[in-house]
Specification:
Shape: elongated
Radius of gyration: 25 Å
Low-confidence stretches: 1-9, 18-27
Largest sheet: 5 strands, mixed
CATH superfamily of the largest domain: Conserved hypothetical protein from pyrococcus furiosus pfu- 392566-001, ParB domain
CATH class of the largest domain: Alpha Beta
Distance between the termini: 20 Å
Strand order of the largest sheet: 1-5-3-4-2
Structural class: alpha/beta
Helix content: 40-55%
CATH topology of the largest domain: Conserved hypothetical protein from pyrococcus furiosus pfu- 392566-001, ParB domain
Number of domains: 3
């Protein structure tokens, strides 16, 4: 199967729709009422910077709308496929009509196109990108390998981006507000306790910690003893003396909490904690096991 690369989504779909594809013939471009065009439910972007809309509106006022919007017909109205900022700009200018290309597209094609178009412009925040990957996976049952092929990225990049959704809500807010970076967030994902993760993220922000400093802080937290139920305290206490250093080294190597639980004089169990399917897949891949979601 040929690999689809980023940027082919909209062009390929336009070419496939021969009756509506943009060409030299302007008759294929029609005027539609601005009020009749609805935003797509598959639009991954939640944040639109007003200054960018204002700049685009000024350009349209000066030169006109160079590139028509791309829409499809849904339940008696037009649903936007590509051109959200252009639509907002012409609406801000008070235009009643706008040039559009009408095409046929399935929900899955629209979801892919909006993702690809935004990735090309680097408009999406990391969490918006992660949420769109999750939409393609859960609603349209696309495997991560297929998503990766369609957007021109590696499966590891897609998987690691989706892992950002495992952050606790408070830490996701810090990432969305750009108070921490994706690098910080990936390190904080090693902390599976929500309160501990939030506290560590707050510390990162308060102290303006670098990613490297965050890595050290998280390693120290993973190596520190954790509060445990009373009925397990005695077992853990016995394990700490002979196996404590081993647990700490394994935790650092795997970026996950590792514990050794003795079951007898010469036997025991190694426990590796994980949170979420993506984390499990990452750990399995470390051991050379290929897991399919």
């Amino acid at each position: 199967m040929a690999r689809r690369v980023i940027g082919t989504g909209l062009n390929a779909l336009l070419q496939k729709n021969t009756t509506t594809a943009m060409a030299a013939d302007d008759k294929r471009i029609i005027l539609a009422g601005v009020a009749d065009i609805h935003s797509s439910p598959f639009q991954p972007r939640r944040i639109f910077k007003q200054e960018q809309i204002d700049e685009l509106a000024a350009s349209i006022r000066e030169r006109g709308l160079v590139q028509p919007l791309v829409v499809r017909r849904v339940n008696g109205h037009f649903e936007l496929i590509a051109g959200e900022r252009r639509l907002r700009a012409v609406a801000a200018l008070g235009h009643k009509e706008v040039k559009v290309v009408v095409m046929e597209a399935t929900d899955q094609e629209v979801a892919e196109i909006t993702l690809i178009e935004n990735l090309q412009r680097e408009d999406l925040s990391p969490l918006e990108e992660a949420e769109q990957y999750r939409l393609l996976k859960t609603r349209f049952h696309m495997k991560q390998e297929i998503i990766a092929q369609h957007v021109g990225k590696s499966r590891a990049v897609v998987a690691n981006t989706m892992r950002l959704l495992d952050l606790c809500p408070d830490v996701r807010e810090l990432l969305e507000a750009e108070k921490i970076t994706v690098g910080h967030a990936k390190v904080l994902l090693q902390l599976h306790n929500e309160r501990q993760q939030k506290a560590a993220a707050d510390r990162v922000v308060q102290r303006s910690m670098t990613v490297r400093q965050t890595e050290k802080h998280v390693r120290d937290l993973l190596a520190a003893p954790q509060e445990e139920p009373q009925d397990q305290a005695e077992v853990r206490e016995r394990a700490e003396a002979p196996y404590g250093n081993i647990c700490r080294e394994l935790s650092r190597s795997l970026s996950a909490r590792v514990e050794i639980v003795p079951k007898g004089k010469c036997s025991g169990v190694i426990e590796i904690s994980f949170a979420g399917q993506n984390e499990l897949i990452r750990l399995l891949e470390i051991f050379g096991i290929t897991a399919r979601p």
